[in-house]
Amino acid sequence: MPVTRRTFLAAGAIAPLLSSCASDLATYREEPFDQLAARLRVCAASYVALKADQPAPTVLVSPCSVQPPLDETSVFQAASLTKPLAAYVALKLVAEGKLDLSAPVSHYLPEGYVHQANPMAPPRLAHTDILPAASLAHIPVFTLLNHSSGLPNWSREPLSLAFQPGTRWQYSGEGFMLLQALICAVTGLDFERSVSRHAFVPLSMQHSRLRWTGDLQMQGVTGTSWLGNESQLTYTQPLAAASLYTTAADYARLMQALFTDKAMLTRTLSLPIVVETKLGLSWGLGWGIETAAHGPYLWQWGNNPGFRAFAMMSATTGDGFVLLTNSERGMPLAASLAQQLIPAEHGVFRFHMLG
User: Fold this and answer.
1) CB-side neighbour CA atoms (13 Å) of 280
2) What pLDDT sits at residue 27?
3) Among residues 165, 169, 185, which one has the least CA distance to residue 104?
4) Contact predicate 115/158, CB 8 Å
5) What's the count of helices (H) and strands (E) in the chain, helices before strands?
6) In angstroms, rounded to a whole number, what is the distance separating the alpha carbons of residues 190 and 179?
7) Of all residues in the chain, what percent carry a pLDDT higher than 90?
8) Which stretches in the chain have pLDDT values below 50?
9) What pLDDT, on the 0 to 100 scale, is given for residue 66?
10) If we measure between CA atoms, which residue out of 244, 258, 259 comes closest to residue 180?
11) In this structure, what are the phi and psi dihedrals at residue 2, rounded to the nearest 5 degrees?
12) Measuring CA to CA, which residue among 68, 85, 61 is closest to residue 239?
C-alpha cells in the first residue's frame, strides 16, 4: 500500500509491541531454520551464507504459498539494511578524498539542511524545517555513521540535537537522512545515482532499487504483519535509512566488497561507540559491532512493516550471512541461522531493539 502519514504513524505505534513479543531472540537459536520458519509461518525467507567472504548460492525457504512464487530474484524490503549501503557509499567518497569524516557537516551543507519531517509520506503530506548551519557545525560527519550525532530516530517536529554529538549512542534514521543530503552535496548527484555509481553498478547489484519501480512488480515479495495480514509500505522516494529493495544475493555482494576492501573494513571498525557493554555491542561506521568468538562481527537488523531482515559477518574470517524475510515474525530466524553458520554466544540476539 502507498505510504500515508496515518500508516507511518501506525507502524511506529505497533513496533514496540512487536519488539516485546520477540525479545531475547537467542532462545530460538537451537531450533532448525526450516522448522522454525514453518512454526512461525514465515512464508518467504531468502538467505545467502558467506564463507571466507565467498557467497554461497541463495537458499529459499517457503513453508506456505506466496505469490509470485519465491525464487533467487525475489526482491524484499531490506529496511535498515539500507544504512550500511549508504555508509559504503560515504566511505568510498572518503577513499576518493572527497569526504572528511572529522569535518563538520556544515562544511558540506553551508546553507543548512532541509529536514522533511515525515519522509515516508507523499510530498503533499510532508512538511519541512531547516536545521541551520550553526547546528550542523557541531556534528562531525562520522557521528552520522555511528549513530552518535544527537539526532533522533525519526522526528515529526523541527529537527534538533538531543545531546552533544559523539558523546553517546542513539539509533538515528534522521542521521542517515542527513548523510543522504551530504552525499548528494559531495557528489553533485541525486542519491540514487550516487548509490548506483558507487555500489549497484560496480558490485552487479542488478536487482536492487532504492524506491519502488515498475520493474519490481513481478519480483517484489509482499510483506505480512504479525497477524498474517498483508502489510507493507511502498517507498516512492529513496531513503538512506530504510528504502532498499534487494535480493539476498545482491546484498551478499555488498558484504563481500566491504570485507575485501581492507581499508574500508578498517574504517568501518574505527571510532566505535558503546551501545550495550554487557552484550558486547558497539557501533562503528555504518555497522553494529559485536564482540564474540571468531569476531568482531558486523551486524545490522532491518524492521519495516511486513518485513524483517538481518545481516552479520565476522570481520576476521569473512563468514556470515544475510537474511531477508517477508514477515514481522521473521527475526527469530536470524538467531537460528547465526547458530548454524557462525556459532558463538551472540549477544546481539538479546538486544532489546531487535524484534
Assistant:
1) 15
2) 93
3) 165
4) yes
5) 10, 13
6) 12
7) 83
8) 1-22
9) 87
10) 244
11) -65, 155
12) 85
Cα–Cα distance measured from residue 310 to residue 333, given in angstroms and rounded to the nearest whole number: 9
How many residues are present in the chain?
A: 355
What are the chain's domains? Answer: 5-350 (3.40.710.10)
Per-residue confidence (pLDDT) for residue 135, from 0 to 100: 98
* pLDDT value of residue 123: 67
Closest by CA to 323, choosing from 254, 244, 251, is: 251
CA 60, CA 4: separation in Å to the nearest integer? 32
Contact 325, 307 (CB under 8 A): yes
Q: Which residue has the cell 548527484?
A: 189
What 258-264 contacts at long range (C-beta under 8 Å, 24+ apart), as own/partner pairs, is: 258/84, 258/88, 258/298, 258/313, 259/50, 259/53, 259/313, 259/315, 259/318, 260/53, 263/95, 264/88, 264/91, 264/92, 264/95
Distance of CA 287 to the CA centre of its chain: 9
Global pTM reads: 0.92
CB within 8 A of 106, min separation 6: which ones? 133, 134, 136, 137, 139
CA pair distance 179, 184, nearest whole angstrom: 9
Q: Exposure of 311 by Cβ count < 10 A (0-12 exposed, 13-18 middle, 19+ buried)?
A: buried
CA 141 to CA 172: how far, in whole Å? 14
CB distance 322 to 310 below 8 Å: yes
What's the CA angle centered on 143, arms 328 and 86, to 5 degrees? 50
Distances (CA, A) of 38 to 41, 56, 79, 101, 188: 5, 23, 23, 45, 47
Alpha carbon distance 51, 47 (integer Å): 13
- Answer yes or no: are the C-beta atoms of 3 and 311 closer than 8 Å: no
**Beta-carbon neighbour count of residue 118 at 10 Å?**
18
